[in-house]
Amino acid sequence: MNWDRIYQIGVVVADLDDAIAHYAKAGIGPFHEGPSAAATDRRVHGLPSDAVVRGACVQLGPIELELLQPVNGDSFQDEMLKEKGEHALHVCAYTDDLDADTAEMAEAGFPVVSEGNLADGGRFAYYDTRAVGGLILERHEMPR
Questions:
Q1: Is the preceding omega at residue 30 within 30 degrees of 0, hence cis?
Q2: Mean pLDDT by 10 residues, the chain (144 residues)
Q3: Which of these, 67, 70, 75, lies nearest to 50 by C-alpha position?
Q4: Is residue 91 within a helix (H) or strand (E), and if so which, with residue range?
Q5: Taking a C-beta distance cutoff of 8 angstroms, is the pair 33, 56 a contact?
Q6: Strand (E) or helix (H) holding 13
Q7: Which of 18, 54, 109, 142 is most buried per CB count within 10 Å?
Q8: What whole-number distance in Å separates Cα of residue 102 and Cα of residue 127?
Q9: Under a CB-based contact definition with an 8 Å cutoff, are residues 94 and 142 in contact?
Q10: Residue 30 — φ and ψ, nearest 5°?
Q11: Which is nearest to 69 in space by CA: 21, 136, 16?
């Protein structure tokens, strides 16, 4: 498994507007709407989810910072916010073959805990790598 295409750090927050204002004080911004709100066919722990998650992104050099606020429904972000409070949730890398990566991760003992499709035709999967450090690894496949 190759993780050399990491491009994003995701942070789960209770209030997106407050988080944006917080980071603006440090000179970070402007943020733009992230793809999370437009995710479809979302599944959490293998079950369909009608979750709504607001997201905002900003580029910090080669890394994108994504802020994620669970709004309603059953989302992995809401589960983690309730469990740990606001925190760095995931590190995401691009992939060319999400299905192959998912099979490899499952074989390595890291099942999918959240997945879905994006409005632009891309797909994502969060893998349960929390056992060490509490961090989720995510893969993002761009539209074909």
A1: yes
A2: 93 98 98 86 94 96 97 94 97 97 98 94 96 96 90
A3: 75
A4: strand 87-95
A5: yes
A6: none
A7: 54
A8: 8
A9: yes
A10: -80, 150
A11: 16
How many Å apart are CA 44 and CA 125, to the nearest integer?
Answer: 10
Q: Compute the distance between CA of residue 19 and CA of residue 137 in angstroms, rounded to an integer.
A: 22
Give every strand in the sheet of 112-117, ordered side by side.
32-33, 52-60, 63-72, 6-12, 87-95, 136-141, 123-127, 112-117, 40-44, 47-48
Residues in Cβ contact with 75 at an 8 Å cutoff, skipping those fewer than 6 apart: 42, 44, 49, 51, 52, 53, 114
Q: Which stretches within the chain are classed as H helix?
A: 16-25, 76-84, 98-107
Residues 76/137, Cβ–Cβ less than 8 Å? no
User: By the 8 A CB rule, do 54 and 71 touch?
Assistant: yes
CA-CA distance, 110 to 129, in Å (whole number)? Answer: 6
Full-model pTM = 0.94
